User: Which sequence fits this backbone?
């Protein structure tokens, strides 16, 4: 099973640690694309900081992100599961996983990244600021870079397992599963039900996804189909409805009443 997560906009900057080494990251098939995006981002932020503020969708009060990006090649790094923060990652709480769950996370989780394509939880990365809808000089939209590069990396990670796609729409645009993979693709939508009315609530959608990932890692279940994943989630206490399979995969609706 491979679970694709979105990155977090906010990140915890490591206070110390060795500098970024792209060759040390998992999935070396992405190294060339990582170098292109990294060099373009660093060059923009170092040489044209005022232009970078606009290109990165920042405000004047967020100039510290430009300065941090300019120094990414020598900035201290930490494990990706410590750098990414926010609602989903708080609910996942990787630091408190059991040893067995941490071992599963190392091979079953991958975070979609505008800068690195995909990163594993143990990959050492610096804190950076680069949204999925950004475009960089000489590179263009970062989504386009990863659209061309991520397929082989996902294939290498997934093998014959189930792909559980928890990415947000912005990061789903980086790479879309081909139709032949659809029988092994599950997406998850979280619906909050109150008095018979259901709606998606962004904050709790992220939190519930984090809890789901944590529970799957702790439980050790390794479903091979969307239906088997639905059964595993039901066994873990969630209410799950399975949609029709399409050429994009099968959507599972997790219905919650308590937030």
Assistant:
């Amino acid at each position: 099973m491979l679970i694709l997560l979105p990155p977090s906009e906010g990140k915890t900057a490591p206070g110390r640690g060795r500098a970024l080494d792209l060759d040390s990251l998992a999935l070396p098939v992405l190294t060339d694309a990582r170098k292109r995006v990294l060099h373009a981002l660093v060059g923009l932020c170092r040489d044209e900081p005022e232009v970078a503020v606009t290109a990165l969708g920042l405000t004047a009060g967020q100039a510290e992100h430009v300065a941090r990006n300019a120094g990414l090649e020598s900035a201290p790094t930490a494990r990706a599961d410590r750098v990414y923060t926010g609602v989903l990652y708080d609910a996942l709480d990787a630091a408190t996983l059991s040893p067995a769950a941490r071992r599963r996370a190392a091979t079953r989780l991958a975070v979609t990244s505008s800068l690195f394509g995909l990163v594993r939880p143990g990959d050492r990365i610096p804190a950076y600021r680069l949204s999925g809808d950004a475009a960089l000089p000489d590179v263009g939209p970062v989504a386009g870079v990863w659209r061309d590069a991520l397929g082989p990396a996902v294939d290498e990670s997934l093998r014959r397992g189930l792909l559980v796609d928890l990415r947000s729409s912005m990061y789903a645009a980086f790479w879309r599963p081909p139709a032949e993979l659809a029988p092994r693709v599950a997406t998850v939508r979280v619906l909050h039900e109150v008095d018979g009315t259901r709606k998606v609530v962004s904050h709790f959608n992220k939190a519930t996804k984090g809890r789901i990932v944590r529970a799957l890692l702790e439980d050790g279940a390794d479903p091979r189909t969307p239906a088997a994943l639905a059964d595993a989630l039901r066994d873990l206490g969630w209410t799950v409805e399975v949609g029709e399979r399409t050429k994009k995969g099968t959507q599972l609706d997790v219905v919650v009443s308590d937030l």
